Fold:
Amino acid sequence: MTMMYARPKNSRIFQAYKLVKTLFKVFKNREEVLLGRILIPYLKGILEKKNVFLVSASKFSTPQYFFDEPCLTEMTARFMESFSRHLSRYRVFYAMKSNSFAGICRRLVAEGLGLDVSSGSELARALSLDCREIIFSGPGKTDEELRLAVQHRSRVTLLMDSLGELQRVSHILKQEPVQGEPLRAGIRIRHQEGWSKFGIPLDDLGLFLKRAGEVRGLDPQGIQVHSSWNLDPGPQAEIIRRIGIHLSRNLPEGLLKSLKFLDIGGGFWPEQGEWLNAQNTLWGKLIQAVDSDFELGPGHYYRKACSIEDFAEQIAGTYLQQGPPLSNLELWMEPGRWLSHSAMHILLSVVDKKGKDMVITDGGTNLLGWERPLSEFIPLINLTRPSLTEHRVRVFGSLCTPHDVWGYSIFGKDVRVGDVIIVPDQGAYTYSLSQSFIKPKARVIQYGGESLREVEEEGLKDFGIRSSNV
Structure:
């Protein structure tokens, strides 16, 4: 018998393989230079609310999260209008993990959206906000979390992740017999390389639906699939085609009758694209792989993204082109990043200046929850002395770690102690990840269009789940 051995990752062969793989990606997906024709209009858009930001910083001090409620409402309306032009039957559920701030979730529920939750704590939060339409997804749900979904089945659709989870749901339903309506459920399909922890193979869908249909008190109604970080709708369109073909070729009529929805998840990337520093581009990584001491220049780069109108047109077109049985289902979506991205900013103040090219601010990157500025280009703007010209200034936070970096340049005429700096568009995957590391988390100031107020997070109501899970 021939034995196969994994090669050490520090071997020359492995390093050469990585180099060739990166080189291929460079030629296939080379990032473009972030030009002024893109950056300048973006900066001008942020500066339109300069006076509001400065009033908020003066009245409530810094650091602070600035929640722009009118912007959230505008983004929601645009998302809904884009899909309404192409589809008559669809539902939108905000992915709570992208930003779990209660004010954002409450506003979106008021706009008619449901909430997509991935844990017992998020489910308890959604219930406390009086949301009537909740989808509960995610792997590794505990029995306690599943029981919470069963207890609130009139408001929750459970997206099951495995046959093992189905068995545990069946056991819970036997312990707590369902009186009245059954628990609505969907099945998550695994399709993306590297995402093996999620869902079941598409080929197992028929078996899963059959077994789920045999569980008393459970009503399997749909399918869920998710692809992430989509700069264009191609990945979503492809999985829609795959599911459409599978349903028409492999599922018997009896199982197809039970299906009412297809949930394609989220993954809609904001249309400004992905902005990167040189060291995080594919070619930058290639250069560093060859020579780790090579010093890259200060340029900024980006990967293009489609508009939400382009997403809506291609997704809806692909969906309808499949015809029955797929086109008979209602389309569900779970946008998070696209809705929350530009609805929250971070305001900081300069508390120390160490020479002409280095300043320290009063807020650290614990407000982001990770060293985001080390992998992405975020244009820092000096609101006190604004300018559309970029100057090389190292901007650090106040944490006792050298990795606490906000950026290496600033848009402003100068920067002095007391100046207010905005870190724009930090609404997605920052507030939910923030942590009290060295410094406490910042307060949230809510801008309603005409007024500013500090918002306290409400405590969770008792929904029968242990505090360790909440």
